[in-house]
């Protein structure tokens, strides 16, 4: 396992990071979730990412239980705040001082830890003054409840203003967590250049495009039984944008590229996002331990310029680049 610095900070994280969105507390039973976490630890993963909204808090609880007994100093635990949680009252959402203050305490209880290494704004809150949000995060850092602050799916403009206010408040935003894959490249035009300027790294989610880049979905065929495309708890909605026959036909063109390299399609997809110097880590989830064991091998893969060009050519008709697709809800959900 290789490790990278997160943003302009001294924090190193495993470049393959374990994420438990759509798995712990929902798709995967607790005992299997713990086996997946154990497989991640055995593979050298030290960084674990979750959020309070995942399974309405259950994902944090399961992760905390799975990591119990591990040396805390040897782990980097990340969580997030923004989306509605708990009883879903009028203040159980957003990035207000109240919700951030209560949210970090609730997350720490569920995770069973005194602090998180990274506390992230899960989206941008258009209904709370950014100054209030940044000051609340500054208080969380000063209290020792979080060591660093990050964000998720913020636009270039939001990152710039947020970083300005953060530095005035005595800390820095060191990370952004956007969707990014060989198919979904909306951060490349604006977010990545701005982040490089501001000392912010990307921790990217869905590097395998919800599983589509594994090649298991075939044009003209029904999705495999038990796959994310058949999950009615949310997975099917997230993946449906990619289940177009033209996209799946382009993805199939990656098979000989992966075969020539002696790696799987999933490893190719993860190695592709890690080829971007602004990416500190690729988030991978798992419903089975062997998925982790296979995906971490991407940490050993370096893709040369010729291979990157072949990937671009194979997917040219299906790549999404529209920078305007980086956005947060205009209004809170409750």
Automatic annotation (TrEMBL):
Question: Which InterPro entries does this one have?
Answer: AKR, K_chnl_volt-dep_bsu_KCNAB-rel, NAD(P)_OxRdtase_dom_sf, NADP_OxRdtase_dom
A GO CC annotation given for this chain:
cytosol
List, alphabetically, the Pfam families matched: Aldo_ket_red (PF00248)
Q: What GO molecular function annotation could you give as one example from this UniProt entry? A: oxidoreductase activity
Query: Which residues does the annotated region (Disordered) include?
Result: 216-235
Q: Which superkingdom heads the taxonomic lineage of this protein's source?
A: Bacteria
Q: Which UniProt keywords apply?
A: NADP, Oxidoreductase
Q: Does the keyword Oxidoreductase apply?
A: yes
Entries under SUPFAM superfamilies matching the protein: NAD(P)-linked oxidoreductase (SSF51430)
Q: Which Gene3D superfamilies match?
A: NADP-dependent oxidoreductase domain
Q: Does the keyword Repressor apply?
A: no
Which CDD domains does the record cross-reference, listed alphabetically? Answer: Aldo_ket_red_shaker-like
Q: Boundaries of each NADP-dependent oxidoreductase domain copy?
A: 15-314
Q: Which PANTHER family match?
A: HYPERKINETIC, ISOFORM M
Family listed: Belongs to the shaker potassium channel beta subunit family.
- Protein's recorded name: Aldo/keto reductase family protein
Query: From which source organism is this entry?
Result: Williamsia herbipolensis
